[in-house]
Amino acid sequence: MKRLILVSALVLAGCSSLSKGIAEAVMEKQETVDTRVCQVWGKPFSGLAPHLNVQPGRMKVLMVHGVGDHLAGYSTQFAEKLARELNLPVRASQYKDIALTSRRDTNKNLGNLRISRLLSQNRQQELLFYELTWSPITAKQKEILAYDNSGEYAFRRAEANDLLKKFSNDTAPDPIIYLGDSRDDILTSFAQAFCWMTKSSWQDLPTGKPAPCSFNDDTIATNIATDHYAVVSHSLGSRITIDGMQRIASIAKDRDADFRAALQHKEIPIYMMSNQLPMLQLGRKLPEISNQKALYCDAKGEKYGERLLAKTPIIAFSDPNDLLSYAIPQGFVETYLDSRLCLEVTNININIANVFDAFGFGKIANPMQAHISYDTDDRVIALIAKGIGNKHTSDLIKNRCVWTETID
Fold this sequence. Notes:
- By secondary structure, the protein is of the alpha/beta class.
- It has two domains: 32-47 and 267-408, no CATH class; 59-137 and 186-266, no CATH class.
- The chain has 16 helices and 14 strands.
- The chain has helices at residues 2-32, 76-85, 136-142, 151-154, 159-171, 173-178, 182-199, 219-226, 236-252, 257-264, 277-280, 293-297, 332-336, 367-372, 378-386, 395-400; strands at 38-42, 59-64, 90-91, 96-99, 112-119, 126-133, 209-210, 228-234, 270-273, 312-318, 343-350, 355-357, 363-365, 402-405.
- Strands 1, 2, 3, 4, 5, 6, 7, 8, 9, 10, 11 and 14 form a twelve-stranded mixed sheet that branches. A two-stranded antiparallel sheet has the order 12-13.
- Strand 10 (312-318), helix 13 (332-336) and strand 11 (343-350) form a beta-alpha-beta unit.
- Helix 2 (76-85) packs across helix 15 (378-386).
- It is globular, with a radius of gyration of 24 Å.
- Residues 1-16 have low confidence and may be disordered.
């Protein structure tokens, strides 16, 4: 009898190990065969690559983070992968940090702007990368919830639930705070970052001290006319970018004709990761001017001279398994965003997180990974760097993404 029990135990242990081995083998197989979706609907876009030549202007990219507390340097991995994709292996030995503040109140802390300089081996191509960290503006208000993260309450939760609660306490308040009094400071932070991006060359940028920037500088109009710009945003950062561009354009009304004309002839693409524009539109008033794109953006339109930009391409990345991300539906831009921005949308449906077959219980993907990992995905990097439907398009995109071109 004892011998039978021993044999049975060994068999059961063997079956358990075998089942575990099979499960791990299935998971590993699903991980090695990358079947993640990448579908692009829109017009061809060039990405950053064609604008890297030092003459006549420079390529400048502004990164705007989304919800949650961030520290300066949060975009380092993204910037490094972008540099590799663009073949920019040389960088300045030191980055520059500007403590952002308001021109009206220089005691205000409006976050940080960190600038990195990336170059080709022969120094003939250059990218200036501007990383905006605005979260210090909301951090103070979120201290109201700090008690909920303390040991007094945290130990009462299951470990996984405690991690989720801390994540929620860090991220959920930001959209609410943005709708309140801090919205003006956040948009001022964005405007200051954009101002520094348009104002100075690398050599002239200050570092290590608070420094307000003014759009009254005579060099800005010339720089806007010759330099190339793009914005990369994540979640709430996309709403901040759209609102910020509208505010900058309204500032242009009170500036000289050269400044207004420079903006009106500029195309500034916005690469939106984990796009949330539809959700963040809830409860907001309609823009002052909407459903009038033809009047403002068509060269024959009656109000063509009142447009804010020549064109604002939106390249919206959305993982369907990202619970906080949304594609931009047809008609949304015309109804809910300012017509004077001359917006044009490309939707990219892309699996950031791997989708697994949960052994007959259905397919599953990690929603957290789907939300936070856009900026490390090679396909996202390649699309931002080299676009689609042009001679620079990466082989990775040609092989892994399906493109449906749209026409007017």
